Amino acid sequence: MMHETLRRLPPLLVLTGFRATGKTAVGRHLARLCGYEFADTDALLAERMGCSVAEAVERHGWPHFREQEQLLLAELVSRRNTVLATGGGAILHQQEWQLLRKQAVVIWLRTDLAATLARLRQDEKTAGQRPRLLSQADDDLETETVALLKEREPLYRAGSDLVIETGGRTAEEAARKLFFRLTKNGADVNSCV
């Protein structure tokens, strides 16, 4: 029975969303439930570049990092039996994103602004590994987050098949809800879990 349930899963599940929405944590749990491999594009890029994302951006700038991210996304299109957590800006690579969408079910992990800011302020990775996204030195975290969400939320919405609110859920709860949805009900375009 479980084998039959797992056969209903899409071969590639892609998680998207802004920073601190739980893509890595939910992705690990979801991969375990599906019996899939887990991959995180930021971790793959850090390994490939030999330094953290923050260090890569500091050394080479955002354009170089985005170019490397774009190349990696193109490579990952052919992955199977994988849950892929993408960086928050991966959605900006629209050509590669559309290729991913043809091969995968894309899930947007979303939180409200207050939850996102709270998580970013509590997350030790934010200061040490996550580079500033806007170049203005006087922008604070809230200003930066609001500006980027305004730019990216329409892309997340248009580029995803499912949406899940993660603000009031643990990563494990979100993963279980997604697993149930994917194995029992299928993935309806732009539906909310």
Q: How would you describe the overall organization of this protein?
A:
With 193 residues, the protein is an alpha/beta fold. It has ten helices and six strands. It has one domain (2-192): 3-Layer(aba) Sandwich (Rossmann fold), CATH 3.40.50.300. β5 (162-165), α10 and β6 form a beta-alpha-beta unit. The longest helix has 18 residues, at 141-158. The chain is globular and about 45 Å long.
In short:
It contains ten helices and six strands. With about 190 residues, it is an alpha/beta fold.
User: What is the number of helices?
Assistant: 10
CATH fold field value: Rossmann fold
Could you give me the name of the CATH homologous superfamily? P-loop containing nucleotide triphosphate hydrolases
Q: What count of structural domains?
A: 1
Largest β-sheet summary:
6 strands, parallel
Report helical residue fraction: 55-70%
Strand order within the widest beta sheet: 2-3-1-4-5-6
Oligomer type: single chain
The CATH architecture would be: 3-Layer(aba) Sandwich
Return the string of H and E elements. HEHEHHHEHEHHHEHE
Give a count of the beta strands, DSSP E runs of length 2 or more.
6
- Average pLDDT level: 88
The top level CATH class name: Alpha Beta
Question: Could you tell me how far the N terminus lies from the C terminus, measured between alpha carbons in angstroms?
Answer: 24 Å
Unreliable segments of 5+ consecutive residues = none
Indicate the radius of gyration in whole angstroms.
16 Å
Give the helix/strand class: alpha/beta
Strand content: 5-15%
